[in-house]
């Protein structure tokens, strides 16, 4: 079986476990995902099967669209709901839509992010989260990412207000770090309390297949299978002309 499945990843399990379950259900040997979702997040996870594992790097280049919630006044060591609370601050009453929208504007475009310690980034051959679990913190180099859209949906006013937002971003963007940095900017701290990936490139959550559906009927694997050619349709194309060293570059 060669192609891609748009899987609806549930909260509470890792992206690796989703891939492993898909492999077991469909009885295939080779599979991989095109962009990690943290265990606490849900939504679109592209699982590449068979020969499609060769295009994972191209799928990872596609932009991501998320719906998220950040809780103000609390900071955690993982920058999301999975971590330990490391700081609490009172939320000022002047934090309103106008103030948040103003800060959101500052984070649009190309920005620098420092990868969180609880991440899969390698440091001297070891994953950062392995070091973090040992209580070790190391210096991380900032990385450039791009925020194409960052829009406020609403604020749920309570002791620790919840800010609902949507973001469209480049690969490698840490939404939990975005929330953490915005919380610092607001002066009260914040953590990512919920995240749903709605879209990767042209792959929508509305068209995704849940693990439960696949377990009940594994023939859905073939029905929902996206061909390699279809998956690559939105990327740049290079057409090589026979008998010539010339090629056409098309978008």
Query: How would you sum up the global shape?
Result: globular
Q: Which residue ranges are poorly predicted, with pLDDT under 50 across at least 5 consecutive positions?
A: none
Beta-strand segment tally: 16
Instruction: Determine the strand fraction and express it as a percent band.
Output: 35-45%
Largest sheet: 10 strands, mixed
Describe the 3D structure.
The chain has 251 residues and is α+β, with helices and mostly antiparallel strands. The protein has 2 domains: 3-62 and 201-240, Pseudouridine synthase (2-Layer Sandwich), CATH 3.30.2350.10; 64-200, Pseudouridine synthase, CATH 3.30.2350.10. Helix content is 23%, strand content 35%. A hairpin with a 5-residue loop joins strand 10 (143-156) and strand 11.
Question: How are the SSEs placed, and which strands pair?
Answer:
Layout lengths: L2 E7 L5 H12 L4 E3 L8 E8 L6 H4 L4 E9 L1 E3 L8 E4 L8 H10 L2 E5 L8 E2 L2 E2 H6 L9 E14 L5 E8 L5 H12 L3 E11 L2 E2 L4 E2 H6 L3 H4 L4 H4 L5 E4 L6 E4 L1
Parallel strand pairs: 1-14, 3-12
Antiparallel strand pairs: 1-3, 2-3, 4-11, 4-12, 5-6, 7-10, 8-9, 10-11, 12-13, 15-16
């Amino acid at each position: 079986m060669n192609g891609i499945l748009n899987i609806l990843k549930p909260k509470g399990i890792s992206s690796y476990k989703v891939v492993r379950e898909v492999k077991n259900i469909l009885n295939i040997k080779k599979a991989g995902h095109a962009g990690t979702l943290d265990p606490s997040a849900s939504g679109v996870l592209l699982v590449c099967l068979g020969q499609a594992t060769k295009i994972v790097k191209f799928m990872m280049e596609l932009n991501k669209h998320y719906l998220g919630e950040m809780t103000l006044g609390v900071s955690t060591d993982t920058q999301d709901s999975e971590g330990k609370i490391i700081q609490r601050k009172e939320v000022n009453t002047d934090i309103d839509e106008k103030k948040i929208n103003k800060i959101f504007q500052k984070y649009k475009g190309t920005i620098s992010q420092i990868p969180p310690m609880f991440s899969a980034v390698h440091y001297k051959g070891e994953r950062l989260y392995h070091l973090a679990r040992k209580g070790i913190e190391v210096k991380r180099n900032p990385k450039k990412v791009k925020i194409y859209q960052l829009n406020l949906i609403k604020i749920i006013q309570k002791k620790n207000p919840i800010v609902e937002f949507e973001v469209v971003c480049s690969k490698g963007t840490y939404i939990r770090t975005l929330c953490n940095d915005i919380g610092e900017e607001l002066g009260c701290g914040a953590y990512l309390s919920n995240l749903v990936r709605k879209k990767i490139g042209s792959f929508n959550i509305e068209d995704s297949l849940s693990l439960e559906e696949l377990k009940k009927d594994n023939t859905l694997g073939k029905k929902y299978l996206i061909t390699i050619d279809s998956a690559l349709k939105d990327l740049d194309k290079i057409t090589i002309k026979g008998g010539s060293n010339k090629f056409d570059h098309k978008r």
